[in-house]
Amino acid sequence: MDIQNESRRLLDAEDGDEDLTGLMSEQDAYLSKVNNRNLYLATFVSVLGPMSFGFVLGYSSPTIPQLTSISDPRLRLDANQASWFGSIVTVGAAAGGLLGGWMVEKFGRKLSLMFCSLPFVFGFTMIIAAQNVWMLYVGRVLTGLASGVTSLVVPLYISEMAHERVRGTLGSCVQLMVVIGIMGVYLAGLYLDWRWLAICCSIPPTLLMVCMCFMPETPRFLLSQGKRREAEEALRFLRGPDAPIEWECARIEDACNEQGSRFQMSDLKDPGVYKPVMIGVMLMIFQQMTGINAIMFYAENIFEQAHFKESNLASVIVGLIQVIFTGVAALIMDRAGRKILLIISGAAMAISTTAFGVYFYLMSKNHPPHTGTLDAGHPEHSRRGTPC
């Protein structure tokens, strides 16, 4: 179909409103004909991956106190083993991040999401069936591997599916679902033991794998593979039957052509490239150095060592606060701006972590920490975890 004729058709009035429609831009005219129902459905299915990622991050917090006091000596964790149980997931996540970059180019976004569901399910299955500590470790590494792939693929999948009007909103759902997953596993840990908790954590990735069978590949990836007909079908599913998808398909093709060759190390000589890359990398490094992952892994143990009577409930409150402020940030991000939010959150983290460290320093002076393997039979340690 002739793209110029299509553009003119978009700008022509229907029902006698020629003057009003004539003032609309091509993009506004196109988006006015878009139905977002299937786009929202595909987004909801894909963010089951970040929810599973949140389950993995939060799983160790309610589980470690149970495994340090379990009666089975084959599964009972000492201080070092419990620390590894919480942190070893990051080893798998690091490998998953590298693997995900290769998978999205080799297999596409949709298949990569389906494949990353398998380590989630196998990892939690390994934990459910664990007969020794090493099976617990393997399960955590597998779920970490899936988390690393998910954290790369899902934002890419959503950004390539969504149009400009809703891309920012849908993109913010990724982090929101991560913290919802963390809060969910903390909340479920109040009522379920560690095996049943792992069973519940395996449900979202199973649904992800099944439901993604009915979702499309991203139009951008299909066009990059020369599959224009399949790309048009994907756009028709995502935009609805009334949207003239040939116009958007042509725009995506133009964007792919303008992108040109792949990134090369020599491109880093360009200040327009290395400056934003450096800023982005440093932001990610500083984010990880705040220690938030360690707090999520060992939240219940931290509150126990801080002498909270209801440490598991305190963990749920932390998860709830994360959900609330992630939602608030998503709502005000476009109005307030990214920079001011980063400054405010950075200052708040600096103050809170300083207070956190001072509190534990003073407490260690007055109450020397318990060392060695935890005594599961002692009532004082029946719910005591391991230091992080």
Automatic annotation (TrEMBL):
It is a multi-pass membrane protein. It is found in: Cell membrane. It comes from the Eukaryota. GO terms for molecular function: dehydroascorbic acid transmembrane transporter activity. The chain crosses the membrane at residues 39-62, 82-104, 111-131, 137-158, 170-188, 194-215, 277-299, 311-333, 340-362. Residues 38-388 form the Major facilitator superfamily (MFS) profile domain. SUPFAM superfamilies: MFS general substrate transporter. It catalyses: D-fructose(out) = D-fructose(in); D-glucose(out) = D-glucose(in); alpha,alpha-trehalose(in) = alpha,alpha-trehalose(out); L-dehydroascorbate(out) = L-dehydroascorbate(in). The keyword Membrane applies. The keyword Transmembrane helix applies. Pfam families: Sugar_tr (PF00083). One of its GO terms (biological process) is D-glucose transmembrane transport. GO terms for cellular component: plasma membrane. Insulin-regulated facilitative hexose transporter that mediates the transport of glucose and fructose. Facilitates hepatic influx of dietary trehalose, which in turn inhibits glucose and fructose influx triggering a starvation signal and hepatic autophagy through activation of AMPK and ULK1. Also able to mediate the transport of dehydroascorbate. NCBIfam families: SP (TIGR00879). This is Solute carrier family 2, facilitated glucose transporter member 8. It comes from Champsocephalus gunnari.
